[in-house]
Amino acid sequence: LFSAVEMAPRDPILGLNEQYNADTNPNKVNLGVGVYFDDNGKLPLLQCVQAAEKTMMATPTARGYLPIDGIVAYDNAVKALVFGAESDVVKSGRVSTVQAIGGTGGLKIGADFLKKVSPNAKVLISDPSWENHRAIFVNAGFEVSSYAYYDAEKRGVNFDGMLASLNAAAAGTIVVLHACCHNPTGYDITDAQWDQVIAVVKAKSLTAFLDMAYQGFGHGIAEDGAVIGKFVAAGLNIFVSTSFSKSFSLYGERVGALSVVASDKEEASRVLSQLKIAIRTNYSNPPIHGGAVVAAVLNNPELRAQWEQELAEMRVRIKAMRQKLVDSLKAAGVKQDMSFITTQIGMFSYSGLTKDQMVRLRSEFGVYGTDTGRMCVAALNSKNIDYVCASIAKVI
Ligand code: LMR
User: Fold this and answer.
1) What is the spatial distance between Cα 295 and Cα 289, in angstroms, rounded to a whole number?
2) Atom 5 of ligand 1, nearest CA residue
3) Which residue among 47, 59, 92, 279 is least packed, with the fewest CB closer than 10 Å?
4) DSSP letters spanning 129-177
């Protein structure tokens, strides 16, 4: 049965974790996967999460099946966070939100549903994009190609190219957009550029699928989320996948969501019924714990304020690390101007290092980043940064 089964390549991101874990270099540093570590190199367990869990543990509950679309209080909290509790779109019942297994789960449920709604549509992802975007939509049966995004020479977004790609797309094309903190490049488009993208999406009847995995890591929760309001104001039917892996440091709980904006309440209930089929046929219904924790935090004003504070601390520390990275690279003897690192945003820096340089960083120094040159700035700290910079200086 399996004699012809080919060995699949290692996952370009999570596969690095396996390699990192097996590495015996005592100085090894994992800048591969997008995970935030504090200045002591520890994965944080947020205070707001601990407080919510303490309350939950005080009154233990049995674990029956959740509804297919998840915890109602969670879905409503996600709607409020993503669209605004008082927004017309939420109040008029036009948003269908389902709990999903991480942001990846939200993307997959959305992709499966879209395959039913628009079976012949093509999918466009940014060039480059998060490695898993292509695989998720290909596995859902779509043909995936890319729209122009990164301009390596100018170190920024090739916005004219992006608009040209979108303008050239056939009506009905599904466009996967990074709502904030573009992964992997760290370059976002401006507010005014979003307006232009939205105008093209509308004029060309494209379907926008916004991946919101890093809300709060750019400029702030509301600031990063504002782009969603722009799409809604334009009267578009959109998809939004949400992840709380990073913003709640709940990676292993797989807490995410998918929200779909329909044209009216009745349409939204039909959409929801189809999302439930997609969930039921993939994994039946979501797990309880992570969603219950996030709902408890988002729905309690005190815990919510604490979360915002803790998220802000992560955001500020990453920004400080960007500056430190620029300074330490210079101090380590890197001649080229690396100040572009501070104009990037979110967890990642697209360093511009080649695949060969990234492989050398791993094999000679135990410094792990992706082959594309992406490094997770959120895993740098005051203890490992000099070693990382000295290593980079040796391969540059
Ligand atoms: C990343 O890009 O490193 C994260 O989103 C983790 C993942 O699942 O790839």
Assistant:
1) 10
2) 34
3) 59
4) --HHHHHHHHHTT-EEEEEE-EETTTTEE-HHHHHHHHHHSPTT-EEEE
Q: Note whether 203 and 163 are within 8 A (CB).
A: no
- Closest C-alpha residue for ligand 1 atom 9: 13
Ligand 1 and 340: CB distance under 6 A? no
Q: Is 183 in the pocket of ligand 1 (CB under 6 A)?
A: yes
Question: How confident is the model over 365-379, as pLDDT tens digits?
Answer: 999 999 999 999 999
Distance from the CA of 35 to the center of ligand 1, in angstroms?
8
The pTM (predicted TM-score) of the whole model is 0.97
Give the architecture (CATH level 2) of 58-300: 3-Layer(aba) Sandwich (3.40)
The two beta strands, 150-151 and 156-157, are antiparallel
Give the Å distance between the CA of 290 and the centre of ligand 1: 18
Average pLDDT over residues 311-339: 97
The reply to whether ligand 1 has any atom less than 6 angstroms from the CB of 33 is yes
Task: Give me the pLDDT at residue 214, please.
Answer: 97
Sketch the domain layout of the chain as residue ranges: 14-45+304-395, 58-300
Distance CA 253, CA 37 (A): 17
**Closest atom of ligand 1 to CA, residue 130:** 2
The DSSP element (H or E) to which 126 belongs, if any, is strand 122-127
Task: Indicate the average pLDDT of the chain.
Answer: 97
| Overall fold of domain 14-45+304-395 | Aspartate Aminotransferase, domain 1 (3.90.1150)
Taking only the tens place, the pLDDT of each residue in 135-160 is: 999 999 999 999 999 999 999 999 99
Q: Round to whole Å and give the CA distance between 275 and 259.
A: 10
The DSSP bridge pattern shows strands 207-212 and 239-243 to be parallel
13 Cβ below 6 A of ligand 1? yes
C-beta 243 within 6 A of ligand 1: no
| pLDDT tens digits, one per residue of 239-282 | 999 999 999 999 999 999 999 999 999 999 999 999 999 999 99
ipTM above 0.90, yes or no: yes
Q: Are 176 and 133 in contact (CB under 8 A)?
A: yes
Q: In the chain, pLDDT over 90 holds for what percent of residues?
A: 99
- List, in sequence order, every residue forming a beta bridge with 75; answer none if it has no partner: none
Find out whether 392 and 333 touch, Cβ atoms under 8 Å.
no
Residue nearest to atom 2 of ligand 1 (CA): 34
Cβ of 217 less than 6 Å from ligand 1: no
Residues with catalytic roles: 130, 211, 246
